[in-house]
User: Fold this.
Amino acid sequence: MFYRPEKLKVYVKRVFEEMNNIGIGSFPIVAIISVFIGAVTTVQTAYQLVVSYIPMSVIGQIVSDSTILELSPTIMSLVLAGKVGSHVASEIGTMKVTEQIDALDVMGINASGYLVLPKIIAAMLMFPLLNIISMVLSIWGGITAGNLSGILTQAQFMEGARETFSGFVVFFSILKVFTFAFIITSISAYQGYFTKGGALEVGASSTRAVVFSCVMILVADYILAQLLLK
Amino acid sequence: MIELIKLNKSFGEVHVLHDISAIFMPGKSNLVIGASGGGKSVLMKCMVGLEKPETGNLFYDNRDFLALDYAQLREVRRELGMLFQGTALFDSLTVEQNIEFPLKMFTDFTKREIRERVDFCLQKVNLVGVNNKYPAEISGGMKKRVGIARAIALDIKYLFCDEPNSGLDPITSRVIDKLLKDITEEFQITTIINSHDMKTVFDIADKIVFMNKGKIWWEGDRHNLLASSKEIPELGDFIKASFFV
Assistant:
């Protein structure tokens, strides 16, 4: 995969195309899940806080910390494992079974480099951006849900959120999605690239890509937490 | 010129190619015929580098294809064109983009030069007005012609066609046959065609190689094919069955 590209210009263009497919194409689903993650976490945290002497701003603190640290990066990546992972595996798998990858090989093009590398680079660039958007929208969702349901005001929410905010947590969150992006695209591309057979096997590869990606995301999540949160 | 010397290929316990030796000359349409499972496709895959034979040699104009390093291999592969049985057109690209693809990857042509070359290739295969269509929007015969146009987009020296007439009606098959013959002679390409179609064999073959059970049983030209079929029962059966079909 890491041989010198035939023409760098073509590869750079491919990276931008994939950034559009993977990044821009995933924005709507990321936006929707993020808003609801924040909203639901706020409502459920308020439901669990039954002691009256705890200030309501704690809800803002819990919601912002948990969404930035865990919910945004991990749930977003699990959802994208389904969307991006299945797309990558089925695209490459279909190309494999219809001999399009053989056609690239016969032309003297490094097929894995041409097809897989731009997807990995694009995902590793776009996932952190999507994660930043997801964090912001989650917090906005939390504030909105708090306001609409009368649980807490925006000021209370932000007071709590600012109290324990740490730049390292944001860095850690971005590091996580950076790792998850690599996991999703590499596993899915591998599953697609080694598809043999026909349409049924493409579907099976796609399913395997999503399942393996999800499991590996959770494993990597745990390992990163163990390594960096001490 | 392509020269094969004692090529052998196995998949596990199954020995698919046995000591295959042959010479294919430029400007000639070389047809490899034989029943399904006889080893034709595996031989073609070995010749284009999609499979690696265990033993033997394969020379492209005296360049030992199996001993080349990655960079040298890529150079030789740029001289190869292949028409796949299922055409293998990139379905996310239009007809025009499919033909442009090798030009953009391997040449420093300007946009205008690329457009001229694409038009030239499409003209060669008698296709007009389909530039912006996707492979899913054109017929099987058109796809084959686009496949040929893509294969010849670069100045290739060797053209491989795996069952170029499969799935086509008899009239379109003759059009494809003529196209392959004309391109081979005009550009002095070494063309190797895997085929079951005896009409193709009698129409365009300059050299015929009959493969059965992974071995070459007979080679010659179309003028002595029928005579030889009486001496080699397997060849005779293949020809007879083809005609009845």
